[in-house]
Design goal:
Jelly Rolls; Arc Repressor Mutant, subunit A; 2 domains; four-stranded antiparallel β-sheet; 6 helices; DNA binding; cNMP-bd_dom_sf; transcription; DNA-binding; cNMP-bd_dom
Length: 196
Amino acid sequence: MRRFSAGEIIFHQGSETTGLWIVLQGRVAIEHVGAQGNWTTSGIWVAGDVIGIAGLWDRSGYPGSARALDTPTELGWMDRQEALALHQSVPAFAMTISQLLAERLRVVQESIASRQGRPILFQLAIVLSMLGRKTASHVRLTHEDLAHLIGTRRETISRVLQELQRMALIEVGYGDIVIKDPDRLEALALEPPPRS
């Protein structure tokens, strides 16, 4: 087990994939830096999630950096060779890894399709709904973190969060958001995109 503090980098984008990480406690953000130096957050992982799978077989390196969001954040670690040996010799392990990869691909495809061309209000509803399902309706992220998840500015997120709060869908606190009406929030997230 390895322990990290909030803000501490677990692994860097592009560095060699040396193994799998299992989140035991806390939350981890996966962040990507683009060619122009802009960065986005592709996901928030919580206890029970496995990170670092992407470059395990092809040695392409970690596609993003992993940053601890909580103090403490505790992670289990499995060496690349051990993970590959288990994958080849234990069918249940191989099936679990395959299911994780399939689930992540599905989530990415759904996220891209559902957010494409939609106003920030709907994009934020989608993201909060997905995170709320994972964290029992209590999302502990800063406005800056949410902005990086969606690809917008912090000020825009603050304004849209206030709008969702006026709609009685969420309650905004410092560093956390409580989803007050998950069903209505999900209904908003699933609304067809407005026509231009």
